[in-house]
Amino acid sequence: MSSTAFASTRLGRFLHNSRRWVVLAMLLALHEALISEPGGAYQRIWLLIHFGLFLLWQPFFEGDREVERVALALLAAITGTILYFLPGWLIGAWICVLMGILGGKVFTAQAARRGRFYLVAFFYLASMMLLWTVPRLVLREPVIPEPIAAFATLLLPLSLVALVFLPFNPKDDDSRQVFDFFYAVLVFQLVVVLVLGSIALMRYTDGQYFTSAGLTVIGFGATLFVLAVFWGPREGFGGLRTYLSRYLMSVGMPFETWMRRVAELAEHEQDPQRFLGQALVLVGELPWIRGGRWKSADGEGEFGVESENVVRFGFHGLELAFHTEIALSPALFLHMRLLAQVVGEFYESKRREAEMRRNAYLKAVHETGARLTHDVKNLLQSLFALTSAAPGEGALDPAYANLLQRQLPQLTRRLQATLDQLRSPQVETRDTLRPARSWWADAGRRHGSGEVTFEGRLDGEVAVPANLFDAFLENCIDNARGKGGAEVRMKAMLTLAEGRAELAFENSGDAIPAGIAKTLFREPILAPDGEGFGIGLYQVARLAAQSGYAIELMHNDPGRVAFRLFPA
Predict the structure, then answer these.
(1) What is the per-residue DSSP string for 70-107?
(2) Rg of the chain's alpha carbons, rounded to an integer?
(3) Are 340 and 370 in contact (CB under 8 A)?
(4) What span, in angstroms and rounded, lies between the C-alpha atoms of 184 and 176?
């Protein structure tokens, strides 16, 4: 019959709902085994009954769980071996284990209502262990004082009568969660120390076991009382529990030191990427960390070396992977998760600070532009009057006059678009589309002094955003001029193919520093002299995104710096 079928029977339901009586019968069977003749048949029979009742009560597995055949055979072999040889010290060890299990149920916070029930059972086992089991079965004392023998064999079992009247709810006890393994091990160790201490102290009491047991209990109680006072004092310092909890929470590592170093780093380092790299270097100093890798929207990087053991975390779009020397225990895993979350929160705050700085700067730019609106308007009026008054033919050179008549209206339109953007910086204005060949011819004439070399690979015709291409070309020329003046060679290349237009610009100046190159198109660049920002390429990149284009730095080598404007 399976355990599930057995649980559905009347006997199975009775045992399931009457765990109080199972515990009482288990302890009474153990009592009869202890007072029986050591090594006799009755002792073996009562121990067999006791072990069977223990299996029905044990708090480790659910009662309706079917035991596997291998486990059942192993359990039968162990029980048979113990019952056959039946050494006294093994019975004492079993009582210590049973007291540890009861201790794991007594001292749990969830077991407040069951505490008194199991506390009585614990008191009975502790008394029988010291007064009867150790002297008779372990030390094999020939004579036990009559009062002690009468108390152990007759009066102690009467204490179990209290188990009948104490409150006990089988539903509260029918869960594995009410067993605390840590407390069970702690209680087991305390009981073993108490028993071994009583035996060891016999050396100083002329072999008198009960005298040494009394002294050991008194000393043990006094020690526990002092520890209890220092564990949670009412006034003064926080107690030993504060320091123990602090140690357990930090897993023995200098967490506070690490947090202080990260906080100091956050105060001095403003760049999010550099802060992230340096913070993870601090994480890499932990003894069990061999390396790691991170990835975010702004980039990625790594440190150290890889290993087979990897743990991964993610916070605010930041992906972290740590390679560890060993497989992390649950405590260390939670600790590493806390460290990763701290780094992720600091990194996100740095990103938000950078975004706020960019927004503040752009706001200042827009406010400054608004103040210039009136002056630009006057300039447009003057240029419009100049264009209207320009004669079709006159004393001017005909070629110059034609160029002037062609360029001034275009300049007027560009300034008008700038004025509209200054009035409403939040509104994205649509760029004017022009045939690429026409724009390329005008650009060559505007910069036809020989300073810039123009190369075209024109296959077909494409309409391009004229303002975007003009802004890209002029910004690249201005930046190249600032690097070396007339000594810098510049070349512009337009490629038309398969309905796409790409504009590339190359100069022979110095390479752009790596730190600036990473954020060249994402934010304004601080000028080398520390006064102001370089905003040209940043604004061109934003304009390109509005028009469906993108900008990239193709080459960044000394003597060859190349940019490319292409459809995204």
Answers:
(1) HHHHHHHHHHHHHHHH--HHHHHHHHHHHHHHHHHHHS
(2) 43
(3) no
(4) 13
State both tokens at 424: 């409403």
Residues 179 and 249: beta-carbon distance below 8 Å:
no
Instruction: Please give the C-alpha separations between residue 93 and each of 133, 196, 456, 502, in angstroms, as whole numbers.
Output: 10, 11, 94, 85
What are the tens digits of pLDDT across the range 58-108? 876 655 566 678 877 888 888 888 888 888 899 999 999 999 988 877 665
Residues 6 or more apart whose CB falls under 8 angstroms from that of 144 comprise 132, 135, 136
State the Cα–Cα distance between residues 241 and 236, nearest whole angstrom. Answer: 13
| Helix spans in 372-465 (H) | 373-389, 398-423, 436-446
- The position carrying tokens 């947090």 is 259
The band of 498, judged by pLDDT with boundaries at 50, 70 and 90, is confident
State the residue for tokens 């062609």. Answer: 406
* Residue 391: CA count within 13 A, CB half-sphere: 6
Output 186 or 329, whichever has higher pLDDT: 186
Question: By C-alpha distance, which of 470, 476, 501 is closest to 491?
Answer: 476
SS3 content of the chain, % helix, strand, coil (to 5): 60, 15, 25
Strands 289-296 and 525-526: unpaired
Fold of 430-567: Heat Shock Protein 90 (3.30.565)
Amino acid (one-letter) located at 139: L
CA neighbours closer than 13 Å in the CB half-sphere of residue 282: 22
Q: What separation in angstroms does the CA of 472 have from each of 97, 184, 448, 467?
A: 81, 75, 17, 9
